Amino acid sequence: MATHQALHAQGVSIRKIAKTLSVSRNTVRKYLRDINPPQFKAREYEKQLDKYREEIQDMLDKGYIGTRIHKELVQKGYMGSPSSVHRYLRAFKENDKAAKLATTRVETGPY
């Protein structure tokens, strides 16, 4: 990592770097040898509620609230908590708002 290399460039020993960063000396050596430290990426998870997306949209169009949507989904086999449904609905509504706010400008020529 950049921290390892920065400390080593300042003349700090490998042992001291390891102790400061709470990692083993071998790990410090490994990162100092690597020109490009590993790039970690957050894992993408499929949300349980994604498979009910269309049904949720229909329920929102009918004016259902989160608690009612949760009850309906439980009847269809959903095993999650009501708070998970509410979090999903919040994100769902934010994406929907952003889509509605996005406009496309269309220009036509003079008649």
UniProtKB/TrEMBL annotation:
Stretches assigned to coiled coil: none
User: Which PROSITE patterns did the record assign?
Assistant: HTH_IS21
Q: Which GO terms describe its molecular function?
A: DNA binding; DNA strand exchange activity
State the SUPFAM superfamilies in the record: Homeodomain-like
InterPro entries, per database record = Homeodomain-like_sf, HTH_IS21_transposase_type, Resolvase_HTH_dom
Residue span(s) of domain HTH IS21-type:
1-60
Its recorded name reads: Helix-turn-helix domain of resolvase
- Annotated organism of origin: Desulforamulus putei DSM 12395
